[in-house]
Amino acid sequence: MLPAVCGRQALSATGHGPSDHVTYKTRIDPAATAFTSSPWAYNGKVFFLSEEGRTFVVAAGETFQLLHVNELDDMALASPALAGDRLVMRTEHRLYSIRRSTPPPKC
Hints:
This protein is an all-beta fold. It has strands at 2-6, 11-16, 21-27, 40-42, 45-49, 54-59, 66-71, 81-83, 86-90, 95-98.
């Protein structure tokens, strides 16, 4: 599954393989206006960071399911980056470094 977001439209679409068959295409949120950063995926979820600083968490899968919306209360234009065990996010006025407070369980 390949996540995609269409900038000013705030649309989410997924497709499969070389045929680019679209599984679904939907508006992430009516209030979301623009997305500049690239989406990223982790642990069965796809994350979309809007320019308004809201991160929309969508379940990866065949149907659209919005799981959470996290607020940063600041403009966000840059794509998040992974650095070791951290997710680094830059907004207009802040730099966030996010990681688990406890290590993941060992299998």
